[in-house]
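Sharing a chain and its predicted structure for anyone who wants a worked example. Both blocks are below, sequence first, C-alpha cells second.
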Amino acid sequence: MLLTTVSVAQDYVGELGVQLLATATPRELLVAQAYSGFAHVSEKTMEDVLVHKGKEVPAGDEGDIHRKTELALACIAAIKPDMSGQEASKCIARAFVAENPECYSDLLVDPEALGDVVNAGEAKKVAEHAARMAATKALKELAVMTREKKLPLYFAKAAPLKYTAAQKKQPRWVPKRDEENTEVITKWILSYIPADVAVECDDYNGRWRVISPNLDWKSISWTKRGFEAAACEVIDRAWAFHKFCGGAAAPFDLRELSKRWQEEGVIDS
C-alpha cells in the first residue's frame, strides 16, 4: 500500500477548507508511519509490526510513555534500519507533537491574575488547563529521556560534536548603534542558532518566528520586552527545538543567556 499526496489548484484547496497540502514521492505505508514516529498508532499494532518483522517486542506496561517511546523506536529501526539516530529522534519528536499539539503552548496571562477578572467557575477551568499543559510538558521530558536512553539499542551512535573555542563563547550583544536594527539583529541571531532551525523576522507584527526541524514554530515578540531580551529568547528556543529533534546541546551556557530574557510577570508569544 502506498501513501502519497496530490497537487490541487490553490484556490480550489481554499474552497475545500484544506489548510496544508504538500507534494511528495509516494512511500509505502509502513515507511510513512516510521517517518511520522507511529503517531496515533496503538501499542498492539506496533507489537504486531515487530512480530511480523521478526523483531523482539520491548517489555513494559501498556500505556506507559517509556514503553510507547521504545516501541516506536523499535518499529522505526525494523522498517528503516539505515536511518540515522538523529532522524529517528526527529520522528519521535514529530509523533509527540502530533499527539500532543499543546506541548508548545503557554498561557499568555498569569492564571492568578485571571482569577481577579473571571468568576470562580472560569478560574477553575483556567487552572485545570494550566495543569494539563504542565502535565503534557512533563510527559514530553519523559519521552525525550526514554528516547535518549533507548536510541543506542536500535541505531548507530553518532560521533560527538566538537565545538571550537569561538563557538563556545557567550553571545555578545550587537553594537549600540544597531540595537533597534532588526536586520542586523536577525543576522546576529542566525550566527548563534543551529543550522536546522529557521528564524523569520516579522517587522510588521514586531516578532521573530522560530521554526523547528519538524516545522513546529514559536512566535516571540520584541514589542513588550525589547530587542535584546526577545533575541536571546529566540536563541534559547532555537536550541530547545534542535535538542528536542535529537540535536546536540548548545556550545555556550543557555542558563546564562536566559537571565537576559526571563522576566517575572512577562508572558508573551
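Comments welcome. Residues 36-154 form one domain.
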